[in-house]
């Protein structure tokens, strides 16, 4: 993707303090949309979070975040992204540990 | 479900499997869902509950248990495995000569589907703006085959393989032509199809194929030929919850056992009391046969464990099966980093400016 096009845009209608905003995220799908939605909803300062894929032939998702107490939804998004990275890290560590401890059945599969 | 919850069914832990419908499908572990309970994100708690266990590993596939994550995370890994882990496949076919009965575009499509034994890390993604092929992003193969009669003609046979040369063009006949620095970089593991016995075309005397094939790196969402897996799927761990208030009558124990997959239900040899083999529960097919018999009504509740994912990943192509999940996690982390960078740029824009937010046209 060229650098000139933005990856994330804030859609019209967001509150000036960004306590309620809809983000358009380009070149993403349910994969990141649903994972992000789940992680943002784990934040107790979030009043509402939902995402949609407006049309299957447009390669973008729309992520709506509404916050309590006029807090910034962009901060919640950033926090969720770093939390998702922690999730990936934890799963990778546990997977590697299971791979090295070798307590699994090995078998030969014909191809 | 009030009666079920008294005998071990927990709507937070289980997804109910009933005769005609599923129940308690959505997860509820969010802040504010249960008054007075804290369900906010906590990494230490998450790591404590998380468990990843490899169950079986072969040269082609891996079975693993991913326990303690939400469906959205497990599904992200599955979707990335199928659509976003890069591999190398033939994308362009330049046909110099093709007098076989298979037309050019069908043959080119067949060849594109052949899995190649190339580490995608050795190649760059081709820039979509600048379509320039270089030795860093393209591999070149040559496919040349001509069919002729064997002389002297073999007697008493109609087998084309004995009568003619090159009666079948196989994937092993694709010959790698190193470009630039590739000869040294890929010398230890020269690019070849992972399966050397794929029939690409059939020829008869006088027919000939001569093609130049260009392989590039891409992802499964671009074309299925770039998908690194044959299948990547998960299911939830089945759980069979027996009702202690209503035990299965001893004279019906064997009939009860037959309602489930083999080995799942055990019968005590003397008392004829039924119990569930916890180790074998994962093999239950969840046929719901037990719900068809009125005599077992209320004896049992079928369920699935909400956060226990049984993954099955079958590798096809370059990656050994045990590397696939690691590659998917790497792709996921690359995506979160890219999104973080974009969100931080947005934050600088909104804080640095006059407070006015630049908004996209809705």
Automatic annotation (TrEMBL), chain A:
<feature type="domain" description="DNA-directed RNA polymerase RBP11-like dimerisation">
    <location>
        <begin position="20"/>
        <end position="93"/>
    </location>
</feature>
<dbReference type="GO" id="GO:0005736">
    <property type="term" value="C:RNA polymerase I complex"/>
</dbReference>
<comment type="similarity">
    <text>Belongs to the archaeal Rpo11/eukaryotic RPB11/RPC19 RNA polymerase subunit family.</text>
</comment>
<dbReference type="GO" id="GO:0006362">
    <property type="term" value="P:transcription elongation by RNA polymerase I"/>
</dbReference>
<dbReference type="InterPro" id="IPR009025">
    <property type="entry name" value="RBP11-like_dimer"/>
</dbReference>
<dbReference type="GO" id="GO:0003677">
    <property type="term" value="F:DNA binding"/>
</dbReference>
<dbReference type="GO" id="GO:0005666">
    <property type="term" value="C:RNA polymerase III complex"/>
</dbReference>
<dbReference type="GO" id="GO:0055029">
    <property type="term" value="C:nuclear DNA-directed RNA polymerase complex"/>
</dbReference>
<dbReference type="InterPro" id="IPR022905">
    <property type="entry name" value="Rpo11-like"/>
</dbReference>
<dbReference type="GO" id="GO:0046983">
    <property type="term" value="F:protein dimerization activity"/>
</dbReference>
<dbReference type="InterPro" id="IPR008193">
    <property type="entry name" value="RNA_pol_Rpb11_13-16kDa_CS"/>
</dbReference>
<protein>
    <recommendedName>
        <fullName>DNA-directed RNA polymerases I and III subunit RPAC2</fullName>
    </recommendedName>
</protein>
<dbReference type="InterPro" id="IPR036603">
    <property type="entry name" value="RBP11-like"/>
</dbReference>
<keyword id="KW-0539">Nucleus</keyword>
<dbReference type="GO" id="GO:0006383">
    <property type="term" value="P:transcription by RNA polymerase III"/>
</dbReference>
<dbReference type="GO" id="GO:0003899">
    <property type="term" value="F:DNA-directed RNA polymerase activity"/>
</dbReference>
<keyword id="KW-0240">DNA-directed RNA polymerase</keyword>
<keyword id="KW-0804">Transcription</keyword>
<dbReference type="InterPro" id="IPR033898">
    <property type="entry name" value="RNAP_AC19"/>
</dbReference>
<dbReference type="Pfam" id="PF13656">
    <property type="entry name" value="RNA_pol_L_2"/>
</dbReference>
Automatic annotation (TrEMBL), chain B:
<comment type="similarity">
    <text>Belongs to the archaeal Rpo3/eukaryotic RPB3 RNA polymerase subunit family.</text>
</comment>
<dbReference type="InterPro" id="IPR011263">
    <property type="entry name" value="DNA-dir_RNA_pol_RpoA/D/Rpb3"/>
</dbReference>
<dbReference type="Pfam" id="PF01193">
    <property type="entry name" value="RNA_pol_L"/>
</dbReference>
<dbReference type="InterPro" id="IPR036643">
    <property type="entry name" value="RNApol_insert_sf"/>
</dbReference>
<dbReference type="InterPro" id="IPR033901">
    <property type="entry name" value="RNAPI/III_AC40"/>
</dbReference>
<dbReference type="GO" id="GO:0006351">
    <property type="term" value="P:DNA-templated transcription"/>
</dbReference>
<dbReference type="Pfam" id="PF01000">
    <property type="entry name" value="RNA_pol_A_bac"/>
</dbReference>
<dbReference type="GO" id="GO:0046983">
    <property type="term" value="F:protein dimerization activity"/>
</dbReference>
<keyword id="KW-0804">Transcription</keyword>
<dbReference type="GO" id="GO:0005736">
    <property type="term" value="C:RNA polymerase I complex"/>
</dbReference>
<dbReference type="InterPro" id="IPR011262">
    <property type="entry name" value="DNA-dir_RNA_pol_insert"/>
</dbReference>
<dbReference type="InterPro" id="IPR036603">
    <property type="entry name" value="RBP11-like"/>
</dbReference>
<dbReference type="GO" id="GO:0003677">
    <property type="term" value="F:DNA binding"/>
</dbReference>
<dbReference type="GO" id="GO:0005666">
    <property type="term" value="C:RNA polymerase III complex"/>
</dbReference>
<dbReference type="GO" id="GO:0055029">
    <property type="term" value="C:nuclear DNA-directed RNA polymerase complex"/>
</dbReference>
<protein>
    <recommendedName>
        <fullName>DNA-directed RNA polymerases I and III subunit RPAC1</fullName>
    </recommendedName>
</protein>
<dbReference type="GO" id="GO:0003899">
    <property type="term" value="F:DNA-directed RNA polymerase activity"/>
</dbReference>
<dbReference type="InterPro" id="IPR050518">
    <property type="entry name" value="Rpo3/RPB3_RNA_Pol_subunit"/>
</dbReference>
<dbReference type="InterPro" id="IPR001514">
    <property type="entry name" value="DNA-dir_RNA_pol_30-40kDasu_CS"/>
</dbReference>
<feature type="domain" description="DNA-directed RNA polymerase RpoA/D/Rpb3-type">
    <location>
        <begin position="61"/>
        <end position="342"/>
    </location>
</feature>
<keyword id="KW-0240">DNA-directed RNA polymerase</keyword>
<dbReference type="InterPro" id="IPR022842">
    <property type="entry name" value="RNAP_Rpo3/Rpb3/RPAC1"/>
</dbReference>
